[in-house]
Amino acid sequence: xxxxxxxxxxxxxxxxxxxxxxxxxxxxxxxxxxxxxxxxxxxxxxxxxxxxxxxxxxxxxxxxxxxxxxxxxxxxxxxxxxxxxxxxxxxxxxxxxxxxxxxxxxxxxxxxxxxxxxxxxxxxxxxxxxxxxxxxxxxxxxxxxxxxxxxxxxxxxxxxxxxxxxxxxxxxxxxxxxxxxxxxxxxxxxxxxxxxxxxxxxxxxxxxxxxxxxxxxxxxxxxxxxxxxxxxxxxxxxxxxxxxxxx
Length: 247
What we know:
Layout: H1 3-29, H2 35-60, H3 68-89, H4 97-113, H5 128-162, H6 168-172, H7 176-209, H8 217-239
Helix pairs in contact: 1-2, 1-4, 2-3, 3-4, 3-5, 4-5, 5-7, 7-8
């Protein structure tokens, strides 16, 4: 990791950390007016995050897709990107960052535990299928994480209604039906991109190792998670499965 990349990386980490603190402050003390500071800190952190990735991209002459560090940090970038887009389009979901921002921080922290050294891309990996595979993996990861966030917001809103908690924070959240529908949409988007990720990965593996599928742990768990999401979507769409209160 170069000095300039390191500087922007840590700027992003500190800004995301402060943003999370403000999100928690808003949630616990119901200081809704402070939400703008949390959003501003998140956006500023995202700018630093983008700069660190851009510097690494220029230094290695390839997208950051080679190591666990690069995959973790770029995956965290996609999660924050999805969060900012959702918060921009859905003003009532500005509290979503209380779930997704710390998750991105954990991913960046995990990346640092691996080797962040600058490495050129391996010639055997220079294939368009690698980029297709990784792009759709990040899209799926971002969508699933945002779905996780909207699902938690749904549970918070539902708990507030059940316990008759009156607060401007809860009152301004979208209605339960809207949150439920948004969660489904992000899960379906994630499932579609997940499907493309698995299919393109199989084609890439065939070109690289001569086999579409080898049942290694990564492939096996990818398939298991894909089947679980697929089952959930099937139950929801065809059997109208929404939770215990709906049978």
